[in-house]
Protein 1
Amino acid sequence: MTELLSLDYYNYYLLAAGIITLIAALIPNVLRKKWLTPPILYLLIGIIIAFAGREYTDFDVMLHASAIRRVSEFVVIIALTNAGLKIKEPFSWQTWKYSFRLLLITMPITIVGATFVGWWLVGLAPATAVLFGVLISPTDPVLASDLQTSRPSKRDSSKIRLGLTSEAGLNDGLAFPFTYFAIFLAAKGLDYSQWIGEWFLIEVLYKIVVGCVIGFLAGWVLYKLIFKITSKNHHSKISRGILSLALTLLPYGLTELLGGYGFIAVFIAACVFGNNVEKAKHMDSLHDFTEEIERIFVTFLFIMVGVYVSATIYELLDVMTIATALIVLFIIRPLGGWIALYRTDLSSFEKFALSFYGIRGVGSIFYLMYALGEATFPNSYELIHVTTVVIVLSVLIHGISVAILKKFN
């Protein structure tokens, strides 16, 4: 007799994907005017799932590092496209004058400070401590979306929103050279004099330049192909999904093939492509599509984080681990931001917001998985634990408090 109930695991995966997609569609709208942000609820859903089926959800992150890396990588590049399309005047100094300070001053301070705290409190080995400092240094373009500037067609005079959007757009790519610094420490030894020249020429100069050049050219060429060569009557008929993915995947893939930083290329390509007020409505449709795709993968990723939190709750509740995360979130990043923005024309509240809301999230997950796949780091599980705590606390603290900030900004 033919079996009526199929036990093919593929069907279960399809069912899970459908449920996750539905959650991604409903929760952001349900919580639109609430004090909770969607990632908080996704974490709770993951924790509940883990408690309900603990025997099936206790997994080793290291065994799935490659899959986690690829999912988080895709989420980040989609978010970078989304952020780049929101930048109204990408070639104006007014757009970057605060974020450049955050990139050049706050980011290095955060790396150094978190490195020291990771080594001192958690006992991470030097290379691992440096990696910890690097991977929690970028402001996440995914979770920072609640504080990003408005969609392309809508004007936004908020210095806070613009500063956080432009900072998040670039520093996810700029964390790569420092990630390689940690990888070189782990793979080639603490005697940096043997490899510092190679690191600077290749990982800093070459890869950043390639990312910038390819990103600019890709954004410019795609804009010309879509809006200059094709007739105006056909602009509205071009699929926003196809175009959004092309704007994301073409610069990223080409830059990575040439050995550059694809994160930088994607963000710059989106900035260049969206730099036209007359086409703002078209940019809105691209932005809306990338945001929808981003939501689905963020839902999946943070449900998995919630599952992992439940499975390792006793390791995560270590006093030194929690203390390290709180110091990073409440002292190191805010202090670094305040130093960078000192003597600017920002109000005290604006300085506080730009300094405090260095949200950590998907970018940190990507860099963690990327580095662990490139070299062997001592204390890798301790690193995973403290990074998880930083991300979870950032989601909770920043997610809940952002509702207050929105009322003043």
Protein 2
Amino acid sequence: MAAVSTLWLNAKVTIVDRTGTRVRAGSLEAATAKLADYPHQSAPLLALAESHASDPGFSPGAWQLAQGQLAPASGGEVPDYWLEYSDFHIADADGQPLSTVTMDNLSTIGQNMATRSGHEIEIQTQLPGVRTHRYVPAVALDAAPSKLSVHSTGAAPLTGAMKPPAPASAATVSHPPASAAQAFATRTQSRREALRPAHTGWRGALNSSLGLRLAPGAGERRVRALNATVQQGLPGHRTAVVVNIKGGASKTTATYLLSATLGRVRGGMVLAWDNNENAGNLGDRAFPAAHSNTALDLLEHIEDFTTPEHADQLTGYVRPQGENKFHVLASQNEAGTKEVIDATAFRRMHAALRQFYQLAIVDTGNASTAPTWQAAVDVADVLVVAISNKEDAARRAFTTIDALRNEGYAEKLANGVAIITQPRTASTQRLVEIQNSLAGLVRSVVVVPYDRTLDDGGEIIWEALAPRTRQAYLQATAAVLEGM
């Protein structure tokens, strides 16, 4: 068995009560000791601060403090306190500090440590809601990608219900670049981006108004890193396919917003394709066009697009999405029991459209037995499992996963991404259970917070989205690109 070195991730802890009063402590032990000294009628309930909720390095949850120890709680009540973390640092098994880190650069530091030492590095923590990480040396990644995992964890006495792994921040598998020149250019661009002064937040405001050159903060650095991932070069056309056999599981929303993020951050030719076996609603959520043509109309003329010279005629079949800078191909608009576009037709259309679009995000229907559904999964470079944090949607998501594994797509699924969308009233416990159940099944998990502007099922307006929603979809899009 390969040697594993264990390191510990610690941080300073700030306790925030219901009035907004903040008390900072040097460690988790000091924080719980302070709370133990406060008078309480019952054991206080703690939760992870909202500022950490959308970061993949954290796993939201609730904990009860009893007899000086934290233990998992259901989280159904309003917390008495929230936990905020800052000043993260890594220490060795003896408690000797090794390095200060941020949640943004933790995976880079851990991977470098593993590669240089030649054996696995496990970074554990006792901080509630902070994930632990394991990294293998880069030379072993291609041989054993299944060893990459991230584990939900909490304070030392937490029960096994919180221990199963969730792969939200798994280290990225390294592959040789398709072009050495492109790799070097990307490196130069990344260095230039890292050195560029802040242009958002209070640092950006001071730089703009006073002519300063303050460095970007952690949040802006993270956004820049995600943008760089989304903008990375690809050797050719790539397709992501969004699946869940449950209707209303946010498949169409995910398809639209992944495409919009690609269009706004990456640019180029991006297609969102509604491949519902009957009638999908991607066209209803998109900006309208001067025509009402659908995939069925395009299929009737697909022979006109077997060569690139007719690219200008595609505008008569797709629907441009303005500042989102991508096109929508709507599904046929007549529901029925008979499949209109079968597997052969889908493959013909995909072969033709890949000449015109560098990236395609394909929305699917609700029948894993439909040949067109299976054909889409077969051509997918990355699978995206859309899950709403509701009992029925979650159950059907795992039924979808079982169907994919039974059809021989377990390896493709392991390179996939799960997007969990929070409804208006979301169960914290079920969210944790969904994340834990996805362990070892997909490569990355991203949680999208509730956004009321997406509730009515109408046209999706990017500018109306909450900033946290845009940030979550930037993370999700970067995760999809990492698999390509």
